[in-house]
Amino acid sequence: MPGRERRAAGCRRSGRRVITVMPAPPIIIIRKKGGHGGHHGGAWKVAYADFVTAMMALFIVLWLMNSSKPIQVAISGYFKDPSGTGKETGSTLTGTGEKVQPATEDMAKLKEQLQKSIQNIIDLDKVRNNIEITVTSEGLRIELLESAKGTFFDSGSAALSKSGQEILALMAVELGKVPNHLSVEGHTDAKPYVGKGSYSNWELSSDRANAARRLMQQSGLRGDQVSQVRGFADQRLRNLKDSLDPSNRRVSIIVQYMSKDTQEGASPGKDQKRSGTEKPSAAGEQAASEGTGKKKDEK
Question: Do both 57 and 111 map to the same domain?
Answer without folding.
Answer: no
